[in-house]
Design a protein that fits this description.
Blueprint: H1 2-38, H2 45-52, H3 56-63, H4 66-78, H5 81-91, H6 96-123, H7 134-153, H8 163-173, H9 176-185, H10 190-205
Length: 212
């Protein structure tokens, strides 16, 4: 009997987490709908709460402010299902060069999605939040370690690169600002950006495969 009670507690915890996430997504959906319909300035936390069917304190507890809601709308755009699928595909890729090129594709996916959503929000009069989230950037640096480790273990990391320099090159080259400069400022097609980034990462990070 005790194991059954433990199992029931696990199910209960899982259900609560699922319900909390569903509520969170409902609030994000409500805010996005209102921002696009009436604009950022005319949208209130009260209106978001009413649209989502929750209390005003619930919205404040989850997002703190309207800017917090905007940040979560953008975050969802960046890291939606398409991003998850690409990451999963990259992690199962056994060819080192193909995996490096996947890093370029993932960067493009994130920044394309962010840009599309930002353009919608700008049209609704939403003031752009600060996109240089230090914690997100730190997480990006940590996650990218897996690719450098993979290249090193496969014997495909350039011999003249020390480990830290390799990580720094990957981090800087896949940064948002390079995408913005090439695609937004200079008008490159996103596909051209992805191809340039992939070729550049391969050139700067990888040694040629041994010929056996």
């Amino acid at each position: 009997m005790p194991p059954k009670k433990k199992q029931q507690r696990v199910y209960s915890s899982t259900n609560r987490e699922q319900h909390a996430e569903q509520t969170r997504q409902r609030m994000i959906d409500a805010a996005r709908k209102l921002f696009l319909a009436v604009g950022f300035d005319r949208t209130t936390i009260d209106a978001v709460a009413s649209e989502a069917g929750v209390s005003k304190p619930t919205v404040y507890a989850a997002f703190k402010s309207k800017r917090g809601l905007v940040a979560e709308i953008l975050n969802r755009a960046r890291f939606g299902p398409g991003y998850g699928q690409l990451v999963k595909q990259a992690m199962t890729e056994s060819d080192p060069e193909a995996r490096v090129r996947m890093a370029a594709r993932i960067s493009r996916q994130v920044y394309d999605s962010e840009r599309s959503e930002m353009e919608l929000l700008r049209g609704a009069g939403v003031v752009s939040p600060d996109l240089s989230d230090e914690q997100r950037e730190q997480n990006r640096y940590v996650l990218q370690k897996k690719l450098i480790d993979f290249l090193s273990e496969a014997g495909r990391l350039r011999q003249d690169l020390d480990y830290t320099t390799a990580r720094d090159l990957l981090y800087v080259l896949t940064a948002r600002d390079l995408y913005r400069q090439f695609v937004v400022v200079r008008g490159w097609d996103p596909v051209k950006y992805e191809e340039w980034l992939a070729d550049t990462l391969v050139l700067l990070l990888m040694r040629a495969a041994s010929k056996n």
